[in-house]
Amino acid sequence: MKEIITKLNFVDRVKAFLFGKVPTNSRMPATTSPLAENAFIASEMTVDKIHSILRSAENGDCSQLFDLYRDIIAADSHIQGEFQKRKIEVLMELVSAQPASKENPADVKNANIVQEMLDSIPDKIRVFSHLLDSCLYPVSLVEKVFKPSHKNGLKFEIKKLVPVPHRLLDFRNGKLSIFDTDETGRVLTTSTEVETNRYIVHRGHILSNPDNWGGPMRALLFWWLFSVMDIGWWSTFLERYGTPFLVGKYDRNDDKSRFVLQRAFAAVQRLGGLVITKETQVEVQNALSSQNGDAFEKFLAICQREKSKLILGQTLSADAQPTGLNSGNSELHNDVRHSIKYFDCQMLATTLRDCLVVPFMRFNDIEGAVPKIVVGSEDEDDLQGLSTVLQSLYASGIRLTDESIVILGQRLGLTLERNSTQMPAMFSAKNPTENKPKDGIDAVWQIAGNTVAKIEQEYGNSLSVIENILEQSKSPEEFEENIAKFCASWPPEKVTYLIQDALTSNIINGATPRK
């Protein structure tokens, strides 16, 4: 630490003494300059050049590989569109911090502090978009820069998050490092190893290959090259064989007519027409037909589908394809797409927690459990299924615990709390008067109690029999069966009203045991 401080100027030495390892200044002031970007190289690509770039990357020099990635995404409309679809689905989701234990006030306080920090990130969409580049790139880095905080209880807060261009990543020493740059942002030969305190390191894929092998984007290189070459081949074919051409006919031994036709055809471009005799036969042939370009179109479609399968896991969202009546393919493709979205959200949430929230709490000496970071919520169809399950549980008399409510809130992407006023349970053995509302609603309960007395007086013993059947029945099915036996000779509408009134009486007075 002393050796590092002696090499710094006075201001940096003061910062190092006061702040320690907290990064309070950016190391990349000029790396975002457009003039620092390397030249476009995709237009010169061949199969041999791509293999040469891959060999260099495997040896640790990924500069040309990342330049090629940049050019492909910038120039290929299909890859760019599919990549944007995948990232936008995650970027439109909310990022929330939830306490590790809702019952612990310290955990709730930590979650509120972290949530405020996440909401205050400058240019958050751009920063998260750069992190999501690692869905195709092997890795993405963002520099963290802090500043002293004037907020109560905090020492430091986020000043800015700076995306690190992929062209600065260096793997020559076998470790993830960042090239040093001059004042203009141009890359130098030296590099600095990545520090976890300073950088957010995100890998949005599950490949176990080394980062310098290129990540998932490597699988797109040759499909991109084939699609570009196919378009060139198709254009050449149409240029050569797609335009109409002239066919002249002459007698077999009439060389004079043949020479006249040749001179006339040679003068077509200059004159814009032919000057021939009536006896000369000239036909205009059109070589273009609907089938001549089918092979090129099919091959291009195959290349585009392979790109979509790698980026989105399916192809129907990019190109409408016949799947057959009730085949279920569209639903299957949609499930795959939502699974990839859920995976991206989980990976981003884990990275934010480990690389941003944990250092933030450590720099501010915040004790307690680290909040859980949640990105987005479940799919609408899954939530509808979950709602059906919850309704079934409620109808069966099963009540969610506080821990279950926390888990449910994580799945919904919301913070849930139990309502303090509970409705009286219909088959509860407790007297519901314990949960009666107070104040102005007491008059309603008084009217309901008087109504019960009138109902009992009108129906006499029948109502008490219904209540007895209700108390003795162990399940709704047994209750319906006993009611059907008791009221077998009654009109159906009278049975319905009697059951409703009996249940009303049970709710108002409570299901008290009878001797």
Secondary structure category: mainly alpha
Q: How does the overall form come out from the CA principal axes?
A: flat
Number of helices: 18
Most strands sheet: 3 strands, antiparallel
Q: Gap between N and C termini, in Å?
A: 84 Å
- Helix-residue proportion: 40-55%
List low-pLDDT spans.
1-8, 423-433
- Mean pLDDT across the residues is 78
Number of strands: 10
Over the alpha carbons, how many angstroms does the gyration radius reach? 37 Å
Main-sheet strand order equals 3-2-7
Binned strand content: 5-15%
Order of helices and strands: HHHHHEHHEEEEEEHEHHEHHEHHHHHH
Descriptive account of the structure:
Helix 5 runs parallel beside helix 11 (294-312). The chain has helices at residues 2-6, 10-19, 47-58, 63-75, 77-91, 105-119, 124-132, 221-241, 255-266, 268-271, 294-312, 329-363, 380-395, 402-412, 442-459, 461-472, 476-486, 492-509; strands at residues 95-98, 140-148, 156-164, 169-170, 177-181, 187-193, 199-202, 245-249, 281-285, 372-375. It is mostly helical and 515 residues long.
